Write the structure tokens for this entry.
Amino acid sequence: MSDAEPIAWFRQRPSGTAPETSGARPGFIAARPVTFDRGEIGLILKLYGAKVAAGEWRDYALDFGRDSAIFSVFRRASEMPLYRIVKDPTLARKQGLYTVLTEGGTILRRGHDLAQVLRVLMRKPTLVTA
């Protein structure tokens, strides 16, 4: 198989179905970064919005890498993140796909269901007496 054959195969595919390629080598399929899907980001932003409304959180950052996707929450933009919500597909069959970490790197909760993992960050209702 010559060097021109992968390029010819790539060009013969119907439009919209070609895999992403790297500019480094022709015919080389690049790894796609891990991302949060629409449902996952919706759950995270719902929690984030409630915490912003309560005045606890002020900023966030998203980081999409080859190994994991990270949603970091900040009290102020110039500080270290208070919490990091990590999606790591390599742990999907072991401890769970999702992890919540504290500022120091302590694991608060791990699991396979994002809604259950995010529960650790939700404030529990308190009884108010008059």
Residues 38-53 form the longest helix (16 residues). The chain has three helices and five strands. Residues 8 and 14 are 12 Å apart (CA to CA). Helices lie at 4-12, 38-53, 114-118.
